[in-house]
Design a protein that fits this description.
heterodimer; A: alpha+beta; 22 helices; 9 strands; 9% strand; elongated; B: 258 residues; alpha/beta; six-stranded mixed sheet; three-stranded antiparallel sheet; 41% helix; globular
Chain lengths: 644, 258
């Protein structure tokens, strides 16, 4: 048996131990490879998605690699720890330290190359499927599978170097221990670390203050404070696990009446021990889970934005031009022609909008005509307006404005033409996208409208009157290719004649939507995959740690069984043993993300006017579900190991 | 009245290699007796102890403990039986590392949901008897082997079991600590009339007992009773052991002994 064969057999016959490690690294490789496939895709490179998404993908790759490095290092050292007894025997038999390092290196490379190979095969076989999903959500015509050496080379290069680095680091950074201790096995207990009460208080204070700050930011939009919160939360979390929790548990242990009860004696002591031993792990798992929650929560937010987009932008195409816009006739004709060529049905409504000064606020107000409005409303099949002379209705510009304007009654006079009106209601649905209508927009009756002869007094107002053409298109998502030259003209006018306003403004909801959707979908893909890797890793940390201490736990339960622990009691004890390890970091992470979301919700309310509560609750409960399943899975494995 | 009766107990381990660990073994232990079981490695001592402690079942034969056969009980009742009737002392102490000495001792009572007053009262009396006061709040890894074994004896005694099973209790101790522990066990046996069954390799340890039972290859070999003088008893144990050594070597050595 050569040395290499020895290493190989070590790995193959230790498959139970190495299985989890292999799975984790294989999954990282597969995700990384699929990403690279997408990144190097010739169609994507030619820029369907734009620069921003490409940068986002590269960023995700970098995060993935960094995280994988850390994750591999952690699991590697956990396994070395678990196998210390085996190594001790080898060292005892006269193996040199150098040879042992070589052994670890060889083993890591065997597992590494195995997982790289399987990961790439798995990734490649699923990349067509992945491309199909991408194609669907990006509304691309085709995204064919391709073969190119780049993604393969990138994946193999990155992960080979990662495994090499990891095997060196984990060997050189393992604690130097006496052979005797190694032979005795894992029950070598670290000297019990102590906590400090001051730091315990600091930890709680930091966390609480970050929570308070996040609420303040949410309500007052002091965005600068956001930079401080992550630091506060990070340090707070660390001290919370390092000092606050042990301090709390120690206090609980002081109370005999509470402590000396059934399993509490054991489980409290055990928790203290676990806490003190695994501060770093708890901290890392908490932070990683927080990140995963946040990324998924942000995605949920964006998805809610895309869902609401339809409602906020009821019109397919909107063309708005000055009263003397020279392009008007041509543009409208070309738009109609393009729509007809595409075979899309549409309702065109024309508006003449006149600006006036309101005596009530002395601000300008945009006045729409009742009959113009009714043409559009009938194409939506919304209820029509029927107004008497002197009556007026607000046009809502956002969801929020609907509620704000609902009960407002204003008596005002349109000053230039001295027309008294009473605005006593708001139209109950959003008719125009927010970017088109101004905050002060009203509809008046036809009788009043014809009397608006004099233009607005203020000479500085741009567009004293304007023409608005709205195309209501039921299949608005298919309009993204319409009016491309108008868009280009608009862009060039904007760039070359900055001193003057462009005489027209054109908005294509379908096109905008396709941009938003593309960016969003890409971020979803990136985010979901990264979050999956994060969550998998967070769960695996706990698993590895459990695995390392399995022998010791087995002995402990053996003693307890002799002392008369029943089977149900054993299960309960295991529950109490596993539950905090699983759910404590998650609980803290949930709290963190909850407050982060409260902040985001507060900030968003001012700008984009989206509610994310439903999405966040949904994604959180999904996470809890996954975690519960994972908990029972691990518990089942754990109990069967303990019993054997 | 015998507190423990072993009747024709046979234990066969089935598996890739079938192995008969105990073969038709029978003996009785009287209430208040201090019995040592000796035998060479692989003679079935540990198997016997596992059978008595009910964590393993005999292939045939029966074990009667305090008038009943615990192997007829259901798993949960069996666990309750163990936690009330049996106390264990192990070679490597098997104290739980995350508990303090004090907590280790009261553990059997907390598992049995005794009220706090009872626990504190029993703890106080045990602590006094075993002289554990000075290190009550330390961790098992902060105390010496002798202290750890005394703690383990405290844990085995606190619930007043009817039978204490000791598996090589002096195996990991130096001679002074061994003597302390053995004298302690003798004292407990005499004062409390607690029945103790001790498995050991060590003839000195065995010489503290009332009776020594020898088994070899899972079968009864011999038994001897205590003398007035421990020195004589020890000598006789040695004689039986050299016979027990088996094969030609043992026979020769007895002849060569002066």
């Amino acid at each position: 048996m050569t040395f290499r064969q020895f290493a190989y057999r070590n790995v193959v016959r230790n498959s139970r131990i190495y299985g989890a490690f292999f799975m984790a690294s294989f999954f990282s490789v597969a995700v990384f490879f699929i990403y690279s496939m997408l990144m190097f895709h010739p169609d994507i490179e030619s820029g369907i998605l734009g620069e921003a998404s490409l940068i986002g993908m590269v960023g995700a790759e970098v995060v993935l690699v960094l995280f994988t490095l850390f994750f591999l290092y952690y699991s590697m050292s956990a396994f070395l720890e678990a196998r210390s007894h085996e190594f001790a025997i080898l060292l005892h038999l006269g193996m040199e330290k150098r040879q042992m390092n070589k052994l670890v290196f060889l083993e890591t490379m065997i597992i590494g190359s195995g997982s790289i190979f399987v990961g790439i095969v798995f990734g490649f076989s699923f990349s067509k499927f992945f491309f199909m999903i991408v194609r669907e959500i990006l509304h691309l015509d085709s995204l064919p599978l391709y073969v190119s050496w780049e993604p393969f080379l990138l994946t193999i290069g990155v992960f080979t170097s990662a495994f090499v680095v990891i095997s060196f680091i984990s060997v050189y950074f393992t604690r130097e221990r006496k052979l005797r201790d190694l032979l005795k096995g894992n029950d070598y207990l670290n000297s019990v670390s102590t906590y400090s009460k001051i730091r315990a208080v600091i930890g709680i204070t930091l966390i609480l203050s970050s929570y308070v700050l996040s609420i303040i930011v949410g309500n007052t939009s002091l965005i600068d404070l956001t930079l401080v919160i992550p630091f506060l939360a990070t340090f707070g979390t660390y001290y919370f696990f390092r000092d606050s929790l042990p301090c709390f548990l120690d206090k609980a242990r002081g109370k005999r009446k509470f402590h000396w009860q059934r399993y509490r004696l054991l489980s409290l002591a055990e928790q203290t021990h676990i806490m003190m031993d695994n501060v770093k792990m708890f901290f890392v798992v908490t932070m990683v889970s927080t990140m995963a929650f946040l990324s998924v929560g942000v995605l949920a937010t964006m998805s809610s934005y895309t869902i609401q987009y339809d409602r906020l932008n009821p019109l397919g195409l909107v063309y708005k031009g000055d009263g003397d816009n020279p392009y008007e006739r041509n543009h409208i004709a070309s738009l109609r022609m393009e729509l007809e060529e595409m075979g899309l049905s549409y309702h065109l409504s024309r508006f003449v909008v006149i600006k006036q000064t309101s005596s009530y606020t002395q601000n300008e107000v945009e006045v729409f005509r009742e009959s113009d409005m009714n043409v559009l409303l009938s194409s939506y099949s919304y209820p029509l307006l029927d107004m008497a002379k002197g009556e007026a209705v607000f046009i809502p510009y956002s969801e929020e404005s609907l509620n704000k304007l609902k009960n407002k009654v204003v008596h005002t006079v349109l000053e230039e033409n001295s027309i008294p009106i009473t605005i006593d209601s708001v139209y109950p649905k959003i008719v125009f996208p927010g970017s088109i209508v101004s905050v002060n927009s009203i509809v008046i009756s036809d009788e009043d409208f014809v009397k608006l002869i004099k233009p607005i007094a203020d000479k500085n107002v741009a567009q004293p009157t304007y023409h608005l053409f709205t195309f209501y298109i039921p299949q608005w998502m298919e309009t993204k290719n319409i009016g491309k030259d108008i868009n280009e003209l608009q862009a060039s006018l904007y760039f070359y004649k900055k001193n003057k306003f462009s005489p027209f403004y054109f908005e294509n909801a379908g096109l905008n939507y396709s941009y938003i959707l593309a960016t969003y979908s890409l971020f979803t893909l990136v985010g979901v995959l990264v979050a999956t890797v994060f969550l998998l890793a967070a769960g695996s940390f706990v698993y590895f740690k459990l695995h390392t201490s399995l022998e010791r736990e087995k002995r402990k339960f053996d003693v307890l069984k002799r002392m008369g622990l029943t089977d149900t009691e054993l299960k309960k004890l295991v529950n109490r043993h596993l539950f905090p390890q699983f759910f404590l970091p998650w609980g803290v992470a949930m709290m963190h993300s909850l407050f982060a979301f409260l902040m985001v919700q507060g900030v968003l309310k001012d700008t984009a006017n989206i509610s994310i509560v439903k999405e966040v609750v949904l994604s959180f409960s999904f996470f809890v579900l996954i975690q519960v399943v994972y908990f029972y899975l691990i518990r089942w494995r754990y109990i069967s190991h303990i019993r054997s | 009245m015998p507190i423990l009766q072993i009747k024709d107990v046979t234990k066969v381990y089935e598996g890739k290699v079938t192995h008969r660990a105990l073969n038709q073994l029978s003996f009785e232990v009287e209430e208040g007796e201090f019995l040592a079981v000796m035998g060479p490695s692989g003679s079935g001592k540990t198997t016997l102890l596992n059978l008595i402690s009910t964590i393993d079942e005999p292939t045939s034969g029966e074990i009667i403990l305090d008038g009943m056969n615990p192997h007829m009980l259901k798993a949960t009742e069996l666990a309750y039986f163990r936690r009330r009737q049996l106390g264990f002392v192990f070679q490597d102490f098997n104290l739980l590392h995350m508990l303090t000495v004090e907590e280790n001792i009261v553990l059997p009572l907390t598992l049995d949901q005794q009220p706090l007053e009872v626990m504190e009262e029993r703890l106080a009396s045990i602590v006094e008897k075993l002289d554990l006061t000075s290190f009550l709040h330390k961790r098992p890894n902060e105390i010496s082997g002798g202290q750890a074994q005394r703690t383990a004896i405290g844990r085995a005694l606190i619930h007043n079991p009817s039978l204490i099973l000791a598996d090589e209790p002096t195996g990991n101790l130096d001679s002074n600590s061994s003597r302390d522990v053995l004298e302690l066990l003798t004292k407990i046996n005499q004062e409390r009339r607690t029945t103790i069954v001790m498995v050991t390799h060590d003839p000195i340890a065995a010489s503290y007992c009332d009776r020594v039972l020898f088994i070899k290859d899972g079968e009864f070999f011999n038994e001897i009773y205590k003398d007035d003088r421990r020195q004589m008893f020890f000598q006789r144990i040695l004689n039986v052991l050299s016979l027990l050594g088996g094969g030609q070597v043992g026979d020769l050595s007895t002849i060569r002994l002066p």
